[in-house]
Write a structure and sequence with these properties.
The chain is of the alpha+beta class. 14% of the residues lie in helices and 34% in strands. It has one domain: Rieske [2Fe-2S] iron-sulphur domain (Rieske Iron-sulfur Protein, 3-layer Sandwich), CATH 2.102.10.10. The longest helix has 16 residues, at 95-110.
């Protein structure tokens, strides 16, 4: 996990995520700035906000809202610590994606006509 103010990058389930620590608490969110696509993990964390390295847009670590008045936001994700592991709460997939995965599993394991 990051040290105080350090910015880390993670690629989880096709999502690009920044991870940082501010005042001892871990924060995570989308790693792309909505303004010009800047990589937020290349920016910095200061005073409870993450700052984009391209044009210095700032976003609140808790809410993801832009705090400089330009509008826009980034998605933030809850983090939970259990024993020696940290868990990032990513949004659930759509119900039809789960249905497709379930159908694929059933067909690939129980149907003699379905070849993987």
């Amino acid at each position: 996990m990051p040290t105080e103010g350090e910015m880390l990058y993670a690629h989880i389930e096709s999502k690009q995520i920044y991870i940082t620590r501010h005042q001892g608490k871990i924060f995570a969110g989308d790693d792309r700035c909505p303004h010009a696509g800047g990589i937020l993990s290349k920016g910095f964390c200061k005073d409870g906000k993450i700052v984009c390295p391209l044009h210095r847009w700032s976003f609140d670590l808790e809410t993801g809202q832009n705090i400089d008045g330009e509008g826009g936001y980034i998605l933030t994700y809850p983090i939970k610590k259990e024993e020696a592991a940290y868990w990032i709460g990513l949004p659930m997939k759509k119900w039809w994606e789960f249905l497709f995965i379930f159908f694929y599993y059933l067909m690939s394991h129980f149907s003699p006509f379905f070849m993987v």
